[in-house]
């Protein structure tokens, strides 16, 4: 307990109770986990990407804000899940620092109210209704493991209640497990794709070999025909009966004069 309180105090001092700073800190933790998940940014997951409709128009929430979730994770088959980081630290730190039971009870109640409020906010956004291919729930990431466990232990039905509202509560530990499983799915998907590509390339290579053999056979046939034509022409020129050279030789015997010397061609 003492160590938990010390960690909470240090964390509070670092974040200074500022909601914006706490939010940025939560997003940083989420991004660090993603970087070490085995997934690739810009391919299997996207950070702070504005949601758009089918025509490319920007989507806005009921409050007029751009629909811009913290993270979109892509699964094989182009299925997607949205992850939003929600930090509930102030009341939790007050709980850890409370000097008496009354103070702890009050802070614990405020902590649970904060978690419930975040669940309601994500449920109302209804990301799955706006984004094509999005799975029918959104992951709510609670970046502080201890505050997550406190809420779960105090209100065991909280997880199921959130899930009924299509919100999946995740701490750093179970988000890491979820992302590792996703990375494994992608690894198998890429292996399957490689196997299919190898089979496709093998089929194309086989077809090319057959086409080459057919062309090579045609070349041989053309060479054979050319040889036959050459042999026929040669007979007409020199070796066949009444060939051209024999006829010209007879002309020479009759006294025709030629300037060309016979170099054993005739």
What string, H for helix and E for strand, traces the elements in order? HHEEEHHHEHHEHH
Overall mean pLDDT stands at 82
Number of strands: 5
- The whole-angstrom Rg is 41 Å
Strands in their spatial order, largest beta sheet: 1-2-3-4-5
Strand content: 5-15%
Shape: rod-shaped
Query: What's the N-to-C terminus distance?
Result: 117 Å
Instruction: Please work out how many helical segments DSSP would assign.
Output: 9
What structural category characterises the helix and strand content? alpha/beta
Describe the biggest sheet? 5 strands, mixed
Estimated helix fraction: 55-70%
Low-pLDDT runs: none
Brief sketch in words of this structure:
The chain is of the alpha/beta class and 266 residues long.
Keyphrases for this structure?
266 residues; five-stranded mixed sheet; rod-shaped
Please describe the topology of this protein:
Blueprint: H1 2-15, H2 19-35, E1 45-47, E2 71-75, E3 79-85, H3 90-97, H4 101-125, H5 127-130, E4 134-141, H6 145-154, H7 158-164, E5 167-170, H8 172-239, H9 244-253
Parallel strand pairs: 3-4, 4-5
Antiparallel strand pairs: 1-2, 2-3
Helix pairs in contact: 1-3, 2-8, 3-4
